[in-house]
């Protein structure tokens, strides 16, 4: 028998394919394999083995169809009906299709914001939890003046992505979510739920009276403005995300899984709890569903790790 030679090109492609096999790299598929393996007995072993065989099949099918194997035509599988059916079934799984919509070459990121949590902390957490490397640049108010010329809207935070500067905190948070699998690439319903919560939280920070209170120099007048906000529009508006969380049937803000919506709510409530001049620190305490979301984020192991290593 003559053994088929494999070129260096195939060996490199084969190694790359093994590193990026969708079912191996996709966290949901990995969880499924762990669940199968955890069933115990013959049933669990059989199902776990089946998952690995499917992963191997789609890898082999991709290599053959791409022409990576020397002397073997790309149509070699065409006559094997069951193999083709299985390959197509695996290739069309939602999580496999989602894998190919995502960017897998990690961009170079630099987040610039103040040292305090504010509108930067939920972005830091979303990126960190996803295991995405980034530079966490924290500048003082005095240093901000030197950065103004490079800021698209004269505001922080900004995220530099491979040299391109992205502005607006919730836009950045959404982008961070796509990198961290915390913003869905294929589930339009969950995406709209997240965007809806983003919009109402953003509305709250854009009240005309809120902006005027920041510009007011007289302390007594500023306190009066904040008191009016706290007893009126701010309290009313907090009820809107509370009701949507109930509608989304949790336990998280947008449904059954953790998303960037949870981090946005965490950031708002964290600001209240740490103290905002003229606003009671307990203003959101009666909104039990938002408080549940806050506590779930706060108690997340990676959030605890981040706080321990970066916010002491």
In words, what does this structure look like?
The protein has 312 residues and is mainly α. The protein folds into three domains: 57-102, no CATH class; 105-183, 3-Layer(aba) Sandwich (Glutaredoxin); 184-299, Up-down Bundle (Glutathione S-transferase Yfyf (Class Pi), Chain A, domain 2), CATH 1.20.1050. 61% of the residues lie in helices and 5% in strands. The protein contains 16 helices and four strands. It has helices spanning 8-19, 22-25, 27-37, 41-65, 81-91, 94-101, 121-129, 141-147, 169-180, 188-205, 208-215, 219-231, 233-247, 260-274, 288-298, 301-310, and strands at residues 109-113, 135-138, 158-161, 164-167. The protein has a four-stranded mixed beta sheet. A hairpin with a 2-residue loop joins β3 (158-161) and β4 (164-167). α7 (121-129) packs parallel to α9, α10 (188-205) packs parallel to α14 and α12 packs parallel to α13 (233-247). It comes from Phytophthora rubi. Residues 107-184 form the GST N-terminal domain. GO terms for molecular function: glutathione transferase activity. Residues 1-50 are annotated as: Disordered. Residues 187-312 form the GST C-terminal domain.
């Amino acid at each position: 028998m003559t053994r088929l030679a494999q070129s260096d090109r195939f060996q490199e492609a084969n190694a790359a394919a093994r590193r990026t096999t969708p079912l191996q790299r996709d966290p949901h598929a990995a969880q499924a394999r762990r669940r199968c393996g955890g069933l115990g007995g013959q049933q669990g072993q059989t199902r776990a083995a089946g998952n690995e065989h499917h992963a191997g099949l789609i890898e082999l099918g991709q290599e053959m169809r791409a022409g990576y194997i020397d002397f073997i035509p790309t149509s070699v599988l065409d006559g094997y009906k069951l193999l083709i059916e299985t390959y197509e079934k695996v290739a069309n799984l939602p999580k496999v299709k989602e894998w190919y919509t995502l960017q897998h070459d990690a961009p170079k990121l630099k987040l610039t914001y103040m040292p305090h949590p504010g509108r930067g902390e939920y972005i830091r957490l979303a990126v960190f939890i996803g295991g995405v490397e980034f530079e966490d640049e924290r500048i003082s108010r005095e240093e901000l003046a030197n950065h103004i010329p490079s800021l698209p809207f004269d505001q922080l935070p900004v995220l530099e992505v491979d040299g391109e500067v992205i502005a607006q905190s919730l836009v950045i948070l959404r982008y961070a979510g796509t990198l961290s699998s915390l913003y869905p690439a294929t589930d339009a319903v969950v995406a709209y739920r997240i965007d809806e919560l983003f919009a109402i939280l953003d509305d709250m920070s854009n009240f005309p009276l809120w902006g005027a209170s920041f510009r007011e120099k007289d302390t007594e007048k500023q306190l009066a403005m904040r008191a009016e906000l706290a007893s009126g529009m701010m309290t009313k508006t907090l009820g809107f995300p509370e009701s949507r969380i109930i509608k989304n049937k949790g336990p998280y803000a947008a449904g059954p899984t953790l998303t960037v919506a949870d981090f946005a709510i965490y950031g708002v409530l964290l600001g209240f709890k740490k103290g905002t001049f003229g606003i009671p620190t307990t203003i959101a305490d009666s909104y039990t569903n938002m408080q549940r979301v806050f506590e779930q984020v706060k108690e997340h192991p990676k959030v605890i790790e981040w706080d321990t290593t970066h916010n002491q």
